[in-house]
Amino acid sequence: MAVTDFIAGKVAAELLEMLDEICRKSFLCKPTAAQLVTSIQDLLPTIQEIKYTGVAIPPPRQRQIDALSETLVRGRDLAHEILNSGRWNFLKNVQLARKMEKLEKKVSRFVNGPLQVHVLADVHHLRYDSEKKFDRIENSIRQLEQRLGAAKSGVGGEEGGWLEEAVRRAEEEERCGGDLVNLGMEVAKRKVKEMVIGKDDFRVVGICGIGGSGKTTLAREICRDDDVRSYFNNRVLFLTVSQSPNVEQLRSKIWGMIIGNDSVGSSDTIPPLTLQYDFGIVVKTLVILDDVWSLPVLDQLILKTPGCKTLVVSRFKFSPSVINCTYELELLREDEAVSLFCHAAFGQNAIPSGSNEKLIKQVVDECKGLPLALKVIGASLRDKPEMFWTSAKSILTRSQPICESHEIQLLERMRLSIDCLPEKVRECFLDLGSFLEDKKIPLDVLINIWVELHDIEDKEAFAILVELADKNLLTPVKDARYGDIYSSYYDISVYQHDVLRDLAIYLSNRENVNQRRRLLMPRRETGIPKEWERNVDKPFNAQIVSVYTGEMREMDWFSMEFPKAEVLILNFSSSEYFLPPFIDNMPKLKTLVLINYSTSNAVLHNLSVVTNLSNLRSLWFEKISVPQLPETTLPLKNLRKISLVLCKINTSLDDSVVDLPYLFPCLSELTMDHCDDLTELPPSICKMNKLKSLSVTNCHSLRELPTDLGKLSSLQILRTYACPCLRRLPPGICSLVLLQYLDISQCVNLASLPEGIGGLKCLEKIDMRECPQIRNLPRSAASLRSLHRVICDEEVSWLWREVEKSIPDLCIQVAEACFNLDWLAE
């Protein structure tokens, strides 16, 4: 942050005081001074925000702040001169009034001009620059199951210890009910009650969520609720289905509730519950099916009689065709978590007076809103001295298990959710352990890894993603593009609950370190784990290797052999990074991912190890200063995909530095996203004849596209969205005869579409929302016979209505104004 940021804020405040005084004393300058007061008052909060956030401003914005600072300094001097000018000097006062008018116009132009133009760009930049989690609910749990252990201090007896006893006590409380269930469930209970008693057209409703999130607790509270029992005349039946249910016994209990005969047994003749019955009168009945694991079992237990409603509680989210409406259980907010924890630890809903509030909140924070953890850890610390609490907090912070037996018990219990998955889906779930906790997982990276490792197509990989999401084993980001056929996976992310990540790592680490299929570092370390170092004398058979460190120098690496490695993920936080020499010992490497989590772009060293990767198929660089490849680099003939995200391009792609078509002869996908220093694409890109997808997005300095872009004869997808400095598309774009999708959305200064756009005979979809400068369409647009869908703003939609007369199947979708900043909530 430059010194001028502080000067601008200070001078603006001083100038405001002087202008107020001028409004009272100077007749000639009063109207202008009043208008200046309004402009500066609008501007001052922004200056103060820049001043106190401590965030570095890009050079173009900094120059604007510098210019504003100089203007305000001159304004302060001018105001001082006005205040010191005598009223009798009329000529001088007129001259000063004119200067004041010029100053006011200059400030107003800044407020209404550059400050407004960059708002959209700033929002996009913030989204990708932020290293904090996107979702306050699903991403914040850290190594939870591994922390539930018990340092052997205080352990009593051979069958367990103080923590296992606490677990049994917490589980008993959940089975028997009590005041504990009322804590942290108000919102969830209200919403589920609305589904149960407020929606008569919903026959089957559901509660879903990960293990330990409080599903059963919530369902039991619904079962005991006075309003619910009154609505159903006390005809409420709670049944636990489990993974290995006795279906006939469950059916007999349900049938007995329906006919009002509790003595009905499994040996009695029970008609199919799935048939529609009409008893002549409507008898309201609620059946709660807890811990449902499979759809075939559920199908046998759902009632079809009038007035009967079924509440299904499961870790999995079943299809809307089976369950009309499902409530996805959220984790607890901070105040709810404190209340639940204190109830377990102290028998009251608040932190007791005189206790160590800071320590208690630190322990609560380590539970990260998961009800099971709050109850278990809270109960385990009941009546323990403060020194014991401090020790437990330190253990949790270090992510060490407090009790090995209980850790295994919990993880083995959650393992049931994974063992029932198809083998390929199960393997894809275990791959998720390769990514960091509390960090977004780029969908493009994940899909690409699955495609390369499991020999599947993109569509099958996405289907597996949806299946894992439906089973609450990962969480897709809330994005309108999610699932669209032309979705840009590189700027869409998924998340995984840390408990589930722990489970994936636990299941992956059961073999000897040299035999593991996935060699993973669960958390950041200063160097290579000691366990790896002790076994470097033998080859590692891992297919996936995931490393997370700080700065690494040449001497920090060890000689390691990875004859089977196909995926290498290098996570680090540093401004400089020496690539591991063992990459030379990865002959089968197909996917290389480098993600830098520091605040500045990283400079890479030892780049020569990449030049010999003859089998490399995809490369992902994030927050890297893209280096110049050595002159000895041989063509990477198998490389299909390059993604540069938040990178500094510098001159690394200039034609004078690198011959792109020669080095990457088979490249089919090129992505450059949030590369702020990219002003233009190198002309040699137009010679990459195998390129099918080109995405240059959120590049705020990009001024133009190459003139010969039309030579990309294989190009099917072109994205240039959110490039505010892009003013025109080259006419050559109309020669892209295979182009199917064009995305120019949020190019706020793009003036028009090319006149010959009708030459895009295969174009199926255009996204041009938030392009306010486009006020007419080329006549040739009526020749876009393959065009099926256009997304645009209301102001442009009427232009396409005319084109629609020539293209009957055209769907014109008016984009909704979206000012959702939920992603900033954290």
From TrEMBL:
Keyword terms of this UniProt record: ATP-binding, Leucine-rich repeat, Nucleotide-binding, Plant defense, Repeat
UniProt cross-references to InterPro entries, sorted A to Z: Apaf_helical, LRR_dom_sf, NB-ARC, P-loop_NTPase, Powdery_mildew-R_dom, WH-like_DNA-bd_sf
BP-aspect Gene Ontology terms: defense response
Pfam families: NB-ARC (PF00931), RPW8 (PF05659)
Record has Chaperone as a keyword: no
Residue span(s) of domain RPW8: 1-149
Gene Ontology molecular-function annotations: ADP binding; ATP binding
Membership in a protein family: Belongs to the disease resistance NB-LRR family.
PANTHER family in UniProt: PLANT BROAD-SPECTRUM MILDEW RESISTANCE PROTEIN RPW8, TIR-NBS TYPE DISEASE RESISTANCE PROTEIN-RELATED
Protein name: Disease resistance protein
Organism encoding this protein: Actinidia chinensis var. chinensis (Chinese soft-hair kiwi)
